[in-house]
Amino acid sequence: MTIFQLYISLFLSFFKIGLFGFGGGYAMLPLIQYEVVDAHDWISVADFTDIVAVSQTTPGPITFNAATYIGYNAVTNQGFSTSLGVIGSAICTVAVSLPSLIIMTLIFIFFSKLKNNVWMQSALSVLKIAVVGLIASAAILLIDDYNFIDYKSWIIFGAIFIASLKKIDPILLIVIAGVTGVVLY
Amino acid sequence: MTDKAKQYLELFLVFFKLGAFTFGGGYAMIPLIRNEVVSKRNWVEDEEFMEMLALAQSAPGPISLNTALFIGNKRMGFKGGLVSGIALIIPSFVIILIIAMFLVKFKENAVVERVFKGIRPAVVALIAAPLYMLGKSANVNKKNIWIPIVVVALVAFLSVSPIYIIIGSIVLGLLHFLYIKKIHKR
Q1: Are B12 and B64 members of one domain?
Q2: In chain B, positions 142-161, which contact chain A (CB-CB < 8 Å)?
Q3: What is the predicted ipTM?
Protein backbone atom coordinates (compact mmCIF):
# COMPACT_ATOMS: atom_id res chain seq x y z
CA MET A 1 0.00 0.00 0.00
CA THR A 2 1.36 3.41 -0.93
CA ILE A 3 1.22 6.27 1.55
CA PHE A 4 -1.50 7.98 -0.53
CA GLN A 5 -3.75 4.93 -0.46
CA LEU A 6 -3.27 4.76 3.30
CA TYR A 7 -4.10 8.46 3.70
CA ILE A 8 -7.25 8.06 1.62
CA SER A 9 -8.47 5.07 3.59
CA LEU A 10 -7.67 6.84 6.90
CA PHE A 11 -9.61 9.87 5.68
CA LEU A 12 -12.64 7.80 4.66
CA SER A 13 -12.69 5.85 7.93
CA PHE A 14 -12.49 8.93 10.12
CA PHE A 15 -15.04 10.80 8.01
CA LYS A 16 -17.38 7.85 8.58
CA ILE A 17 -16.64 7.97 12.33
CA GLY A 18 -17.50 11.68 12.40
CA LEU A 19 -20.65 11.19 10.33
CA PHE A 20 -22.10 8.26 12.27
CA GLY A 21 -20.67 9.10 15.69
CA PHE A 22 -23.87 9.96 17.53
CA GLY A 23 -23.90 10.45 21.30
CA GLY A 24 -20.38 11.89 21.68
CA GLY A 25 -17.07 10.43 22.93
CA TYR A 26 -17.78 7.13 24.68
CA ALA A 27 -20.64 6.25 22.35
CA MET A 28 -18.22 6.74 19.44
CA LEU A 29 -15.64 4.31 20.86
CA PRO A 30 -17.15 1.07 19.47
CA LEU A 31 -17.34 2.71 16.02
CA ILE A 32 -13.70 3.85 16.21
CA GLN A 33 -12.64 0.42 17.46
CA TYR A 34 -14.61 -1.28 14.67
CA GLU A 35 -12.99 0.85 11.97
CA VAL A 36 -9.38 0.91 13.14
CA VAL A 37 -9.01 -2.50 14.81
CA ASP A 38 -11.54 -4.88 13.18
CA ALA A 39 -12.01 -3.45 9.67
CA HIS A 40 -8.46 -2.21 8.98
CA ASP A 41 -6.13 -3.64 11.60
CA TRP A 42 -4.25 -0.33 11.86
CA ILE A 43 -3.64 -0.78 15.60
CA SER A 44 -4.18 -3.61 18.11
CA VAL A 45 -6.91 -3.75 20.81
CA ALA A 46 -4.06 -3.27 23.30
CA ASP A 47 -2.96 0.01 21.70
CA PHE A 48 -6.59 1.07 21.44
CA THR A 49 -7.11 0.64 25.20
CA ASP A 50 -3.95 2.56 25.95
CA ILE A 51 -5.06 5.51 23.84
CA VAL A 52 -8.39 5.53 25.70
CA ALA A 53 -6.41 5.55 28.95
CA VAL A 54 -4.15 8.34 27.73
CA SER A 55 -7.22 10.29 26.53
CA GLN A 56 -8.77 10.13 29.96
CA THR A 57 -5.68 11.67 31.52
CA THR A 58 -5.01 14.36 28.91
CA PRO A 59 -7.18 17.37 28.09
CA GLY A 60 -9.42 17.61 25.05
CA PRO A 61 -12.22 15.54 23.53
CA ILE A 62 -11.47 11.80 23.37
CA THR A 63 -12.42 11.57 19.68
CA PHE A 64 -9.67 14.01 18.63
CA ASN A 65 -7.16 12.35 20.90
CA ALA A 66 -7.96 9.02 19.24
CA ALA A 67 -7.83 10.49 15.71
CA THR A 68 -4.42 12.08 16.32
CA TYR A 69 -2.94 8.98 17.97
CA ILE A 70 -4.32 6.46 15.48
CA GLY A 71 -3.39 8.60 12.46
CA TYR A 72 0.21 8.72 13.61
CA ASN A 73 0.46 5.04 14.51
CA ALA A 74 -1.37 3.66 11.48
CA VAL A 75 1.23 5.38 9.28
CA THR A 76 4.37 4.65 11.30
CA ASN A 77 3.33 1.01 11.99
CA GLN A 78 3.39 0.47 8.19
CA GLY A 79 7.03 1.55 8.19
CA PHE A 80 6.59 5.12 6.98
CA SER A 81 8.55 8.01 8.52
CA THR A 82 7.45 10.02 11.55
CA SER A 83 6.83 13.18 9.50
CA LEU A 84 4.42 11.22 7.27
CA GLY A 85 2.87 10.06 10.57
CA VAL A 86 2.24 13.66 11.62
CA ILE A 87 0.43 14.26 8.31
CA GLY A 88 -1.60 11.10 9.02
CA SER A 89 -2.64 12.60 12.38
CA ALA A 90 -3.71 15.83 10.70
CA ILE A 91 -5.71 13.95 8.04
CA CYS A 92 -7.62 11.89 10.63
CA THR A 93 -8.35 14.96 12.77
CA VAL A 94 -9.66 16.98 9.82
CA ALA A 95 -11.67 14.01 8.51
CA VAL A 96 -13.39 13.33 11.84
CA SER A 97 -14.28 17.04 12.22
CA LEU A 98 -15.62 17.68 8.69
CA PRO A 99 -19.06 16.06 9.12
CA SER A 100 -19.63 18.12 12.28
CA LEU A 101 -18.61 21.30 10.48
CA ILE A 102 -21.02 20.65 7.61
CA ILE A 103 -23.92 19.43 9.73
CA MET A 104 -23.63 22.09 12.46
CA THR A 105 -23.46 24.85 9.84
CA LEU A 106 -26.69 23.52 8.30
CA ILE A 107 -28.32 23.16 11.72
CA PHE A 108 -27.36 26.73 12.53
CA ILE A 109 -29.06 27.98 9.37
CA PHE A 110 -32.24 26.01 10.06
CA PHE A 111 -32.08 26.30 13.86
CA SER A 112 -35.52 27.84 14.42
CA LYS A 113 -37.20 25.26 12.18
CA LEU A 114 -35.35 22.25 13.57
CA LYS A 115 -35.83 23.08 17.24
CA ASN A 116 -39.34 21.71 17.45
CA ASN A 117 -39.47 19.57 14.32
CA VAL A 118 -41.44 16.37 15.02
CA TRP A 119 -39.68 14.39 12.27
CA MET A 120 -36.27 15.12 13.70
CA GLN A 121 -37.39 14.37 17.23
CA SER A 122 -38.89 11.03 16.20
CA ALA A 123 -35.81 10.12 14.16
CA LEU A 124 -33.76 10.64 17.33
CA SER A 125 -36.18 9.01 19.79
CA VAL A 126 -34.87 5.44 19.39
CA LEU A 127 -31.32 6.59 18.70
CA LYS A 128 -31.03 8.29 22.11
CA ILE A 129 -31.84 4.97 23.80
CA ALA A 130 -29.58 2.96 21.47
CA VAL A 131 -26.65 5.25 22.39
CA VAL A 132 -26.78 3.85 25.95
CA GLY A 133 -26.24 0.40 24.42
CA LEU A 134 -23.30 1.71 22.38
CA ILE A 135 -21.60 3.05 25.51
CA ALA A 136 -22.20 -0.28 27.29
CA SER A 137 -20.64 -2.00 24.26
CA ALA A 138 -17.61 0.30 24.52
CA ALA A 139 -16.99 -1.03 28.03
CA ILE A 140 -17.67 -4.70 27.16
CA LEU A 141 -15.42 -4.61 24.07
CA LEU A 142 -12.52 -3.59 26.29
CA ILE A 143 -12.95 -6.55 28.67
CA ASP A 144 -10.30 -8.93 27.35
CA ASP A 145 -7.21 -10.87 28.44
CA TYR A 146 -5.00 -7.89 27.82
CA ASN A 147 -6.85 -5.40 30.03
CA PHE A 148 -7.90 -7.97 32.67
CA ILE A 149 -4.86 -10.12 33.33
CA ASP A 150 -5.88 -11.63 36.70
CA TYR A 151 -8.19 -11.25 39.74
CA LYS A 152 -6.31 -8.11 40.79
CA SER A 153 -7.50 -6.37 37.61
CA TRP A 154 -11.11 -7.10 38.64
CA ILE A 155 -10.48 -5.69 42.13
CA ILE A 156 -9.16 -2.46 40.57
CA PHE A 157 -12.17 -2.43 38.22
CA GLY A 158 -14.64 -2.81 41.12
CA ALA A 159 -12.97 -0.20 43.31
CA ILE A 160 -12.77 2.40 40.54
CA PHE A 161 -16.34 1.63 39.47
CA ILE A 162 -17.66 2.38 42.98
CA ALA A 163 -15.42 5.43 43.43
CA SER A 164 -16.61 6.79 40.08
CA LEU A 165 -20.26 6.40 41.15
CA LYS A 166 -19.34 8.54 44.18
CA LYS A 167 -18.36 11.29 41.72
CA ILE A 168 -14.66 11.28 42.51
CA ASP A 169 -12.59 13.07 39.84
CA PRO A 170 -11.70 10.59 37.06
CA ILE A 171 -8.18 11.98 36.66
CA LEU A 172 -7.48 11.33 40.33
CA LEU A 173 -8.88 7.79 39.90
CA ILE A 174 -6.57 7.11 36.94
CA VAL A 175 -3.58 8.29 39.00
CA ILE A 176 -4.63 6.05 41.92
CA ALA A 177 -5.08 3.08 39.56
CA GLY A 178 -1.61 3.69 38.09
CA VAL A 179 0.02 3.78 41.53
CA THR A 180 -1.92 0.63 42.51
CA GLY A 181 -0.53 -1.07 39.40
CA VAL A 182 3.05 -0.34 40.46
CA VAL A 183 2.36 -1.65 43.98
CA LEU A 184 0.52 -4.84 42.93
CA TYR A 185 2.55 -5.96 39.89
CA MET B 1 -6.22 45.68 15.62
CA THR B 2 -9.72 46.04 14.18
CA ASP B 3 -12.79 45.15 16.24
CA LYS B 4 -13.45 42.15 14.03
CA ALA B 5 -9.94 40.78 14.44
CA LYS B 6 -10.26 41.24 18.19
CA GLN B 7 -13.52 39.28 18.23
CA TYR B 8 -11.98 36.42 16.25
CA LEU B 9 -9.03 36.41 18.61
CA GLU B 10 -11.32 36.29 21.63
CA LEU B 11 -13.25 33.35 20.15
CA PHE B 12 -9.98 31.59 19.44
CA LEU B 13 -8.63 32.14 22.94
CA VAL B 14 -11.81 30.99 24.71
CA PHE B 15 -11.99 27.69 22.81
CA PHE B 16 -8.24 27.14 22.91
CA LYS B 17 -8.42 27.42 26.70
CA LEU B 18 -11.35 24.99 26.81
CA GLY B 19 -9.46 22.53 24.63
CA ALA B 20 -6.29 22.82 26.69
CA PHE B 21 -7.71 22.61 30.19
CA THR B 22 -10.80 20.40 30.14
CA PHE B 23 -10.29 16.79 30.90
CA GLY B 24 -12.81 14.06 30.16
CA GLY B 25 -14.27 15.43 26.93
CA GLY B 26 -17.89 16.22 25.99
CA TYR B 27 -20.07 16.00 29.07
CA ALA B 28 -17.36 17.28 31.40
CA MET B 29 -16.82 20.25 29.09
CA ILE B 30 -20.42 21.50 28.93
CA PRO B 31 -20.52 23.36 32.29
CA LEU B 32 -17.18 25.00 31.46
CA ILE B 33 -18.32 26.11 28.01
CA ARG B 34 -21.50 27.47 29.58
CA ASN B 35 -19.51 29.39 32.17
CA GLU B 36 -17.40 31.02 29.45
CA VAL B 37 -20.04 31.88 26.87
CA VAL B 38 -23.14 32.45 29.00
CA SER B 39 -22.08 33.61 32.47
CA LYS B 40 -18.83 35.41 31.71
CA ARG B 41 -19.36 36.82 28.22
CA ASN B 42 -23.09 36.78 27.60
CA TRP B 43 -22.62 35.64 24.00
CA VAL B 44 -25.86 33.64 24.20
CA GLU B 45 -28.79 33.58 26.62
CA ASP B 46 -29.02 30.59 28.91
CA GLU B 47 -32.23 29.34 27.30
CA GLU B 48 -30.74 29.47 23.82
CA PHE B 49 -27.63 27.72 25.09
CA MET B 50 -29.74 24.82 26.40
CA GLU B 51 -31.68 24.53 23.12
CA MET B 52 -28.45 24.65 21.17
CA LEU B 53 -26.94 22.01 23.40
CA ALA B 54 -29.86 19.68 22.69
CA LEU B 55 -29.17 20.00 18.95
CA ALA B 56 -25.40 19.64 19.40
CA GLN B 57 -26.05 16.39 21.26
CA SER B 58 -28.40 15.05 18.61
CA ALA B 59 -26.02 15.78 15.74
CA PRO B 60 -23.24 13.30 14.97
CA GLY B 61 -19.66 14.10 16.04
CA PRO B 62 -18.05 15.15 19.32
CA ILE B 63 -20.45 17.25 21.41
CA SER B 64 -17.76 19.74 22.42
CA LEU B 65 -16.88 20.41 18.76
CA ASN B 66 -20.54 20.76 17.79
CA THR B 67 -21.07 23.27 20.61
CA ALA B 68 -17.95 25.25 19.66
CA LEU B 69 -19.04 25.36 16.00
CA PHE B 70 -22.47 26.58 16.98
CA ILE B 71 -21.27 29.35 19.31
CA GLY B 72 -18.67 30.48 16.76
CA ASN B 73 -21.32 30.56 14.03
CA LYS B 74 -23.63 32.56 16.24
CA ARG B 75 -20.91 35.12 17.04
CA MET B 76 -19.14 35.57 13.73
CA GLY B 77 -20.83 33.42 11.09
CA PHE B 78 -19.22 30.44 9.31
CA LYS B 79 -15.65 31.74 9.78
CA GLY B 80 -16.32 32.18 13.48
CA GLY B 81 -17.36 28.54 13.68
CA LEU B 82 -14.21 27.52 11.87
CA VAL B 83 -12.00 29.56 14.23
CA SER B 84 -13.69 28.10 17.34
CA GLY B 85 -13.46 24.54 16.08
CA ILE B 86 -9.78 24.80 15.15
CA ALA B 87 -8.95 26.47 18.48
CA LEU B 88 -10.66 23.65 20.37
CA ILE B 89 -8.77 20.92 18.49
CA ILE B 90 -5.21 22.34 18.48
CA PRO B 91 -4.28 21.64 22.13
CA SER B 92 -5.25 17.94 22.08
CA PHE B 93 -3.65 17.51 18.65
CA VAL B 94 -0.29 18.81 19.88
CA ILE B 95 -0.36 16.98 23.22
CA ILE B 96 -1.37 13.61 21.75
CA LEU B 97 1.12 13.90 18.90
CA ILE B 98 3.95 14.34 21.39
CA ILE B 99 2.68 11.36 23.41
CA ALA B 100 2.26 9.23 20.26
CA MET B 101 5.84 9.94 19.24
CA PHE B 102 7.27 8.91 22.59
CA LEU B 103 4.77 6.42 24.06
CA VAL B 104 6.22 3.46 22.17
CA LYS B 105 9.64 3.86 23.78
CA PHE B 106 8.06 4.90 27.04
CA LYS B 107 5.91 1.75 27.20
CA GLU B 108 8.93 -0.53 27.10
CA ASN B 109 9.90 0.81 30.52
CA ALA B 110 9.04 -1.80 33.21
CA VAL B 111 7.56 0.68 35.69
CA VAL B 112 5.37 2.27 33.00
CA GLU B 113 4.10 -1.17 32.03
CA ARG B 114 3.05 -1.76 35.68
CA VAL B 115 1.33 1.63 35.76
CA PHE B 116 -0.66 0.70 32.65
CA LYS B 117 -1.58 -2.72 34.13
CA GLY B 118 -3.33 -0.79 36.91
CA ILE B 119 -4.88 1.82 34.63
CA ARG B 120 -6.41 -0.50 31.98
CA PRO B 121 -9.18 -2.04 34.11
CA ALA B 122 -9.82 1.43 35.60
CA VAL B 123 -10.46 2.82 32.10
CA VAL B 124 -13.18 0.21 31.56
CA ALA B 125 -14.74 1.06 34.95
CA LEU B 126 -14.80 4.77 34.09
CA ILE B 127 -16.73 4.04 30.89
CA ALA B 128 -19.16 1.64 32.61
CA ALA B 129 -19.93 3.62 35.78
CA PRO B 130 -21.93 6.52 34.27
CA LEU B 131 -24.21 4.08 32.36
CA TYR B 132 -26.97 4.05 34.96
CA MET B 133 -27.22 7.85 35.05
CA LEU B 134 -27.04 8.05 31.24
CA GLY B 135 -29.82 5.47 30.96
CA LYS B 136 -31.99 7.51 33.29
CA SER B 137 -31.47 10.76 31.40
CA ALA B 138 -32.18 9.00 28.06
CA ASN B 139 -35.47 7.73 29.58
CA VAL B 140 -34.60 4.05 29.40
CA ASN B 141 -37.44 2.13 31.09
CA LYS B 142 -38.92 -1.38 31.31
CA LYS B 143 -40.65 -0.95 27.95
CA ASN B 144 -37.59 0.07 25.92
CA ILE B 145 -34.67 -1.55 27.77
CA TRP B 146 -34.64 -4.23 25.06
CA ILE B 147 -33.16 -1.62 22.69
CA PRO B 148 -29.81 -1.14 24.49
CA ILE B 149 -29.69 -4.89 25.20
CA VAL B 150 -30.08 -5.73 21.49
CA VAL B 151 -27.44 -3.08 20.66
CA VAL B 152 -24.96 -4.66 23.10
CA ALA B 153 -25.65 -8.15 21.72
CA LEU B 154 -25.08 -6.99 18.12
CA VAL B 155 -22.09 -4.67 18.67
CA ALA B 156 -20.19 -6.27 21.54
CA PHE B 157 -20.87 -9.94 20.86
CA LEU B 158 -21.66 -10.26 17.14
CA SER B 159 -19.21 -7.53 15.94
CA VAL B 160 -21.86 -5.69 13.92
CA SER B 161 -20.69 -2.25 12.79
CA PRO B 162 -22.28 0.51 14.93
CA ILE B 163 -23.12 2.31 11.67
CA TYR B 164 -25.95 -0.21 11.06
CA ILE B 165 -27.19 0.38 14.61
CA ILE B 166 -27.33 4.14 14.02
CA ILE B 167 -29.16 3.83 10.68
CA GLY B 168 -31.50 1.14 12.07
CA SER B 169 -32.37 3.28 15.11
CA ILE B 170 -33.23 6.31 12.97
CA VAL B 171 -35.45 4.20 10.68
CA LEU B 172 -37.15 2.58 13.69
CA GLY B 173 -37.82 6.01 15.27
CA LEU B 174 -39.41 7.31 12.07
CA LEU B 175 -41.50 4.15 11.55
CA HIS B 176 -42.76 4.36 15.13
CA PHE B 177 -43.79 7.98 14.55
CA LEU B 178 -45.65 7.08 11.32
CA TYR B 179 -47.40 4.22 13.12
CA ILE B 180 -48.61 6.52 15.93
CA LYS B 181 -49.76 9.11 13.40
CA LYS B 182 -51.78 6.46 11.56
CA ILE B 183 -53.49 5.29 14.76
CA HIS B 184 -54.43 8.87 15.64
CA LYS B 185 -55.99 9.39 12.22
CA ARG B 186 -58.46 6.54 12.72
Answers
A1: yes
A2: 144, 147-152, 155-157, 159, 161
A3: 0.81
